[in-house]
Write a structure and sequence with these properties.
Distance between the termini: 24 Å
CATH topology: Nucleotidyltransferase, domain 5
Shape: globular
Helix content: 40-55%
Order of helices and strands: EEEHEHEHHEH
Number of strands: 6
Number of domains: 1
Low-confidence stretches: none
Strand order of the largest sheet: 3-2-1-4-5-6
Largest sheet: 6 strands, mixed
Strand content: 15-25%
Mean pLDDT: 86
Radius of gyration: 15 Å
Number of helices: 5
């Protein structure tokens, strides 16, 4: 199992995988903070070229993908899709890919959006980037040591332990 800590690298890119939108954020270890980037939209084929362009522009040393487990830690179908996405990233790019438990990140992103909207920091049109806010939260959790990353082999073993045959 690969163990990578924020102290070992300078920059990371995180993804909040979805069936229509992929939230993207970039983070750096000096401040343990991340910034949301524009959402990547897709329909039938994974937009590898768009993702490649973002990776080329920001040059992260590590890629993080949110692992959508159930609230009780159980496995769900969306976790299979996120694992497939992480495997695709791993095979397409010369980067280490870790998965990070993303439980509640979407709800936190929704609450953060509402709060920023009420304070006038965001407008309704900014809602399209909520998935990237979730990606930002995933990256910040990892940077701050609140959610350890798991390599793809460890996630596959977790899946086997949680999904009855």
């Amino acid at each position: 199992m690969t163990t990578i800590r924020p102290d070992d690298i300078n920059s990371v890119m995180g993804f909040d995988y979805g069936r229509r939108r992929i939230g993207v954020a970039v983070g750096q270890t000096i401040t343990s903070t991340a910034s949301a980037l524009p959402v990547v939209h897709w329909q039938q084929q994974l937009p590898v070229n768009e993702i490649a362009a973002v990776i080329k522009e920001w040059r992260p040393q590590l890629l993080l993908v949110g692992l959508p487990l159930l609230v009780d830690g159980g496995w769900q179908e969306m976790a299979n899709e996120a694992l497939g996405f992480a495997r695709k990233l791993s095979s397409e790019f010369d980067k280490t890919v870790l998965m990070v438990d993303e439980r509640h990140s979407s709800q936190q992103a929704d609450a953060l959006y509402k709060s920023m909207r009420q304070s006038g920091q965001l407008r309704r049109k900014d809602a399209k980037n909520q998935d990237s806010v979730a990606a930002r939260l995933i990256v910040e959790r990892w940077l701050q040591g609140l959610a350890p990353g798991m390599d793809l082999e460890a996630v596959a073993k977790l899946r086997l332990s949680l999904v009855p045959l």
